[in-house]
Write a structure and sequence with these properties.
- This protein is an all-alpha fold.
- It has helices spanning 5-11, 14-25, 27-47, 59-83, 85-90, 106-128, 130-150, 157-177, 182-205, 207-213, 218-221, 226-243, 245-248, 254-277, 280-308.
- Helix 9 (182-205) runs antiparallel to helix 15.
- The longest helix has 29 residues, at 280-308.
- The relative contact order is 0.12.
- Residues 1-10 have low confidence and may be disordered.
Length: 314
């Protein structure tokens, strides 16, 4: 029997109650999202890009961007789990989530998700402005209303999901500048392209689980993995020129370009190794490479801007 929201609150100790919402929010994933938001904001501030229609924003706008995106991301993750609760129950890696394990009711998870998104949007609107709030809304909308249902329909779901995941650094940038320019699009492009090989590695690693749940991931419909590996390597290689976009827009300089090139080759070689072996071990290895690649690249970008200056006054 499924408990009501009130019953869940009454019968669970505070620590268990907190754990349920941590899992619904996927806070480990959200922590990486918050890093990209901060990088977007810091990139704008240290590069000296002139804000549009507002005074130079203080740290309040950074915290508002981070907590606002945290709210929308947490809410979107919760709504995703509401919609996929039956599929999650079929997969080994997700069957212990709060909804399949009946540690919270559907109504409780739905209420939490909607409230988290609402609170996040209000924080973005008040602390960062309407443009940042609009981007936050679009990110949550794409994730819940487009990406989630597409996972059962087409392998293109990964591309759509990457749009949602690429918006947070742009939100951080907009929070500091109140505008979208070539620098913001460069950050968006890096996050978008990075996510494709990152998620393809995950899909290959857990392809039996996805097949059991009926999700049309590329690793599921591509029986021998040849197309998956070509796509993975292609986007890994595409990430190299994409990571150089900040140099092309004038945001970064040669030292960043050198680091980006080295990191890109490291990532691409991992993809090549997986393409040749198609083993779980190499898929897991590439997944961890992708997790190290992104923060290293973003730190290199910030360091370059701080040490060598940016497009001040543009």
């Amino acid at each position: 029997m499924k408990a009501s929201v009130g019953a869940v609150i009454e019968t669970k100790p505070a620590s268990q109650w907190l754990q349920v919402f941590v899992e619904l929010s996927k806070l480990r994933l959200s922590s990486l999202v918050l890093i990209t938001v901060a990088v977007g904001w810091l990139t704008a501030r240290f590069s000296g890009v002139t804000p549009v229609g507002l005074a130079a924003p203080g740290l309040l706008s950074l915290f508002a961007a981070m907590f606002g995106v945290l709210g929308t991301a947490a809410g979107a993750c919760a709504l995703n789990q509401v919609l996929e609760r039956e599929l999650d129950g079929r997969m080994n890696r997700t069957r212990a989530r709060p909804l399949p394990s009946q540690r919270i009711s559907v109504d409780g998870a739905l209420t939490f998700g909607l409230l988290a998104i609402l609170v996040g949007l209000v924080i973005l609107l008040v602390g960062c402005g309407p443009l940042a709030a609009l981007l936050g809304f679009l990110s949550a909308l794409v994730y819940v209303a487009v990406y989630t249902p597409l996972k059962r329909l087409t392998t293109l779901n990964t591309m759509v999901g990457a749009v949602s995941g690429a918006l947070p650094p742009m939100i951080g940038y907009v929070a500091a500048t109140a505008r979208i320019d070539a620098h913001a699009w460069a950050l968006f492009a890096i996050l978008f392209v990075w996510q494709i090989p990152h998620f393809l590695a995950i899909a290959w690693l857990h392809r039996e689980d996805y097949e059991r749940a009926g999700m049309r991931m590329l690793g599921v419909v591509d029986a021998d993995g040849s197309l998956t590996m070509r796509q993975l390597l292609l986007f890994g290689l595409l990430l190299i020129p994409t990571s150089l976009l900040p140099v092309m827009t004038g945001l970064a300089t040669l030292p960043y370009a050198i680091v980006a090139l080295v990191l890109g080759l490291w990532f691409a070689l991992g993809g090549l190794r997986l393409m040749l072996s198609k083993t779980r071990e190499d898929a897991r290895r590439l997944f961890y490479v992708s997790l190290f690649y992104l923060p290293l690249l973003l730190v290199a970008l910030l360091a370059d801007i701080v040490l060598f200056g940016g497009p001040e006054g543009t």
